[in-house]
Amino acid sequence: MVLGVCLLGGAVGSYEALPQATAQTSHTDPSQVQIDQEWLGDSGPMVQRIGPASTRMRRQPGAQRGVGMAPGKATHPRIGRGKKAVPTPPPPPPPDTDDDDNDDNLLGDIGGLRPWLGRYGITFDLQEVDELWGNLTGGVPGSGRGSRGTGPSFNGVTMPTLTVDLEKMIGLKDAVFNVSALQIHGRSITQDRLYNYNPVSGIEADRSTRLFELWYEQAFWHDKLDIKIGQQDLDTEFLITTYGALYLNANFSWPMGPSANLYAGGPSWPLASPAIRLRYRPADNLTLMVAAADDNPPGNQWNSFTVQNQGQGNVQDPTSQTTNDACGCRFNMNTGAVLMGEVQYALNPEPDDDHPDRKRTGHGLPGVYKLGGYYDTARFPDWRYDVHGQSLGAAYARGDVTQPRMVRGNWLLYGIVDQMVWRPSQKSPTSVGVFARATGSPGDRNMIGYAVDAGINLKAPFAKRENDTLGLGWGLGRASYGARAYYRTQGQRAPGTENHMELTYQAEIMPWFVLQPDFQYIFNPSGGLENQKWSGHKVADELVFGLHSRISF
User: Fold this and answer.
1) What is the pLDDT of residues 191-202, one digit of tens each?
2) How far, in Å, are 112, 263, 389, 402, 485 from residue 385 at the CA level?
3) Which of 36, 160, 311, 454 lies at a C-alpha separation of 20 to 30 Å from 242?
4) How confident is the model at residue 33 (pLDDT cuts 50, 70, 90)?
5) How far is Cα 173 from Cα 105, in angstroms, rounded to an integer?
6) Which ranges of 32-174 would DSSP assign to H, the alpha helix?
């Protein structure tokens, strides 16, 4: 059996339900994932594919949705402090009984260890997510004799996380410390067999044991402003779609644009880099975020871009994830900087149970709308021209020893919509939500010019399955005009658009065990590039089945 684990933790924060005395004085700041889920009335998937593995949206004591969260309740004991704090949840059961929070963990309170650590502000989480994949048709044969593009593959990740509420521990008000690590195992089916723009799994990565995040967060002005500084993974807070976080294809988490266009994919799974992030909430339904981070976590001179190094990219490290940085502790700051910003607006954010709008039948369905972008200050290879101003593809085709012209700067703009479109009643766990996200980048220095993903989710599709979610998603990535010119002038088939469809069902078997069967079909892999194993033929469409699972310890 394939097993996986997840706790609400890691890069997006980790918060335990504590005895009443400590819950009422908790000063641990809610993550952006939690805020988005709250705005959408807890209608997003209970396990969200965001950041390094998956994020468990914890239920609170007194939840009214079976094992789910209460409608309109905050996903943390409170969002905001002082006058801005929302009411704390009802007190948990007595210490000698199993409370809801410990039911989310296979090991419960570990003989009282969890609540004891919680009194000192310490939360330790361990998550293990494992996946089994199989490609039934298409793909690219491996290097082994008689190998095929079809067959099974296994990949997984183990992530321990330590989160400390420094106010409880040492009296430092509104301060949080977080450190996490990764143990990545298995093999990437996309790298070995599929030849896609984007991996079919968001946790595929080179095998390694490494430090992941190491940061300190400080809040000010009753949580209107908070600052995070240290080693960070930006894809846990920026470019997130809550409904899209249900899906396993990597494009629905950190999307195709930055993954394919930035060095090493930028500060995103499984790489974090030194960064500072500011989040300002001037109103209950408005959030502004900005961040500055090193753009190239391993500090590679050559990347996986085919256009570099005589058309070979980084042959020692084709995925640009672990070269010079196998332990994750290089803390590179010698390359470019990626500057990122995002504005988030909540339409009809779900009111609290005690809010007057809760009783109004005319309260609209909630939605979250985001606009953002980034600018990378590094130099990037121009896919069209070499250092002499000649056609790069033609030069490589002649066998000339040359390199691409390097141009300064790179950017991407994006927009995101998460909108609930139907719910039988305001307190019903069943709902239908839709999402859409689009990104665009300049075509001369990027492999992907633009990408779009969208989908529809049905939460609680069956009676007594209130935490299950059924989803159908679609996405595409379009090769840039520079990439098309590069391959065309080499005399090869020019790439076009890759499309992928995903049908998935997330089932909560137990509060601590989630199983997610998944189906994906990839049309025109890598935009129709030629299959290097079978000259004259493009990579055939791929039919991929997967089984994703997790257990919370």
Assistant:
1) 888 888 889 998
2) 64, 19, 5, 10, 10
3) 160
4) confident
5) 29
6) 32-39, 100-103, 113-119, 166-170
Beta strands at 431-440 and 497-510: parallel, antiparallel or unpaired: unpaired
> The pTM is what?
0.84
Q: Give the pLDDT score at 285.
A: 92
3-state secondary structure 395-429: HHHHCCCCCEEEEEEEEEEEEEEEEEEECCCCCCC
CB neighbour list of residue 393: distance below 8 Å, 6 or more residues apart? 485, 486, 487, 488, 489, 490
CA–CA dist 79, 501 (Å, integer): 36
Contact yes or no for 211/181 (Cβ under 8 A): yes
Query: Is residue 320 very low, low, confident or very high in pLDDT (cuts 50, 70, 90)?
Result: confident
Residue 531 to residue 540: CA distance in whole angstroms: 8
* Mean predicted lDDT score pLDDT of the chain: 81
- The secondary element (H helix, E strand) that includes residue 394 is helix 392-398
> Can you give the C-alpha Rg of the chain in angstroms?
23
Supply φ then ψ for residue 357, to 5 degrees: -65, -20
